[in-house]
Amino acid sequence: MATTGKITERDGIKTITTHYIDGAFVESHGREVIDVIKPTNGKVIARVTLADEEDTRLAIAAAKRAFATYGRSAKEERAKILRRLHEAASARIDDLTAAMVEEYGGVVQFARPIVESGVNAFLASEKALQDLPLTRSWGKTTVTLEPVGVAGLITAWNANALFICLKLASAVAAGCTVVLKPSELSSLQTRVMVEALHEADLPKGLLNVVTGLGNIVGTELTRNPDVAKISFTGSVGVGESIMRDGAATMKRVTLELGGKSPTILLDDAALDKAIPAALVLAFMNSGQACAAGARLLVPKSRLDEVKRSIRTVMRVFTVGDPADPKTAIGPMVSQKQYERVQSYIRKGIEEGAEVLAGGEGHPEGLEAGYFVKPTVFVNVKNDMTIAQEEIFGPVLCVIAYDTEEDAIRIANDSKYGLHASVLGTDLERARRVASQIRAGRVVINGMTDDPQAPWGGFKYSGVGREYGRYGMEAFLETRAILEA
Ligand code: NAD
After folding, report:
1. Confidence at residue 12, expressed as pLDDT on a 0 to 100 scale
2. Is 290 annotated in the active site?
3. First vs last C-alpha separation in the chain
4. pLDDT value at position 3?
5. Which residue from 55, 112, 343, 473 has the fewest beta carbons nearer than 10 Å?
6. CA 59 to centroid of ligand 1, rounded, Å
7. Regions of the chain short of the pLDDT cut 70
8. Nearest C-alpha to atom 22 of ligand 1 is from which residue?
9. Is 165 a catalytic residue?
10. How far apart are CA 452 and CA 442, in angstroms?
């Protein structure tokens, strides 16, 4: 049964009972209902009916039908669709930001730019599409870049709007049709996004969205032979299972996984700029960021100075209401995530690290929600659990090093290799250090972005790349036609 898809609300509780399949909002076949909890106070704000395997199969079938036509679309048609998607999503930036603040607890000073960068991904993909020749010929040989087929997009909860737009933009540019499975923790945010994208008047079946559990909807997508590719953002454990389960149907996979990113502070760094930059990297998105600079490597000769500077700058990293533009750090997404962060703080203390700021428990006056104290550990050794495992919360490990070579060795001594940063005054030296880091992206002197630069990890941080041309290529196959 088709409906408008609008979220209904009664007694302050929102309800969603539909999925987006074949261009329409349809009632869920799955019957399981989950509560959506507001992370600032632990109260139920919505009830969402989750998709099951049957909903997922309907969505895949719709995407397969649409691929028969859209898979043969010309560049200009795809470009037009990307522009329409951009326009449709742009119209709802305020609503998308508000949903991220309410459901996820993202601070507005981070949520808004992250939503904007998602929305801009449509134009970035259009540029990548215009710049990439889809046909190359020489002699009697012609090589074309063909869409891989129906793509399953599986996303994490910490930057929902960005992940959806980024993956959808690359898939659409490549000529793929998609079935999106967002995290169930992002149900409200996803619905606002889908309402927005519905206005782009897409060909039916190009975009299908089924919100459900990973072990139900995610598994169906991963195993279904009609899905050619999975583009996944999430944890290493689930990434491994997607690779393993996907092998049976020879799935192409892009896996955007975890990180334990190093920030190397060189001994010529100006601390008045470098420490605020390092703390922004560490605490971005309340520390629930795959790219968070969770390990700060500091020259031993400057350790005392750095500690003093961190203590001072920490005052700016206020915790509180994420809707307040002055708040730097919001709550964790869920009780589970709150407990995970607490357990790592305890572990750090047990392992002998020293708490310079923060520590266990709720910040004073913020006992109701999933707020944690932004925590900085010093005297951390790189082989400690808190320096090796991804915490996914506002916990920074300060690790001392002797020489530049030592810093590079420590930075690379991690199973992860997603993101890194180098802070220093001598740019040539900073570049030299950056070029020795085994990570998919290294930023110099502060967090920055480029929608055409690849994003993705070395080692356990994943397989493949997203953004711009690199993201689009991940949804393409080459076909060569040779004449005798
Ligand atoms: P998660 O792996 O638990 O879940 C991610 C998605 O996978 C969700 O939609 C979930 O429902 C689904 N899923 C769960 N089990 C599945 C299964 N068996 N088959 C298919 N899908 C399944 O991760 P999360 O807790 O949502 O997100 C946090 C993780 O994501 C962190 O490790 C973080 O580093 C990572 N992350 C990586 C990037 C990146 O760009 N590299 C960005 C953000 C987050």
Report:
1. 87
2. yes
3. 54
4. 67
5. 343
6. 21
7. 1-3
8. 214
9. no
10. 15
Nearest CA to ligand 1 atom 40: 256
d(CA 25, CA 218): 20
Ligand 1 mutation target, pool 189, 235, 241, 389, most atoms within 8 A of CB: 235
Mean residue pLDDT of the chain comes to 97
Ligand 1 surroundings by CB, under 6 angstroms: 154-158, 181, 183, 213-215, 218-219, 222, 233-235, 238, 241-242, 256-259, 290, 390, 392, 418, 462
Q: What is the pLDDT of residues 52-77, one digit of tens each?
A: 999 999 999 999 999 999 999 999 99
Distance 236 CA to ligand 1 centre (A): 8
